[in-house]
Amino acid sequence: MKFFIKKIFKENKKSKIYQISSWVYKRYFPYVNVVTNMFYDTFFYSKHSNVFKVNTLNKIEAKIILDYHSIEKGLLFSQTKYGFAKDKIKRLNKYLKNQKVLTNSNKSQISVAYSVMCEYYELHKKNNFDISSFYAEEDYLFYKNHLNSAYNKTFSGVIEYTKNDFFDHTFSSFDKFSDSRKSVRNFTGNLIDDSTIEKAIMLSKNAPSVCNRQPSKAYYLKDKSKIDKVLELQAGLNGFTQNINQLLIITTDVNYYYSIGERYQFYIDGGVYLMNLLYSLHFYNIAACPANWAKEKDDEKRIKQILDINSSEKVICLIAIGEADENFKTTLSKRRDLDEVLTIIK
After folding, report:
1. pTM assigned to the model
2. Sorting pLDDT into bands at 50, 70 and 90, what band is 24?
């Protein structure tokens, strides 16, 4: 359409109508372009996300991952609240028997979900806690038999660490250092020195960004009342917030983007910066847990009010930070197999 309009007026450059139309085009076409691209984005997300339909294997798998990871997090507590995640167990019982899932049970995330379900049942049976109202023994046996040789009675959805062991690879090769970073939710409540946090922020600055615009930044929060308000909005660290006394809020300033094609580039730059910061925190022995900020407009407005964040900035993520307990657990968070994340185009 853009090229068609240009072609029409090119032959009448000197006419008044051309001059007026040219001004209108230059003034308003970018707005039209934004709207048409946003319509495309809306249609694309509506069609391919889980919002309206769960009708593909990948969509079902996403639901499975979301629920089994919640169960892993429930296993982190020092005192298990038996019967936890009841609704998630019910949903998993539904999805894990789906024919598409059964046919692809060798996929890493589906296989580990079966194992987590077996662990959940065995934990409750071992402690004589009746869960038959929402998780029947025949379901457990089905998952166990379906795993077949992959079943491991010592499987655990959590990993136990001492603080010294967890930070033991700070000066190791990058592959070992990278593999050693995990999300930590068990904090002592003691504060990390500001100078150490500043060092981590300084190190994270080497993250790449589009055209080196460096649009991302961190807000450092120590006010416990504000931290609790923000974490209540985020609602993903319930049960662990008592000892979270320091919080980083990562934002990206949209002022640094100039084209319609860059309308979501701030998420990419913010994500790259976030990962670099997580490595930097781990390098300086600061326990950290990123908490996703996938919120709608009202919550976005609320957090900006609480923290006085500029209106042009988009919140990317929250990071709970602090001193790790001497002994703690992290979720297994099984990573995908290589053939699931690498496609070689010939």
Report:
1. 0.91
2. low
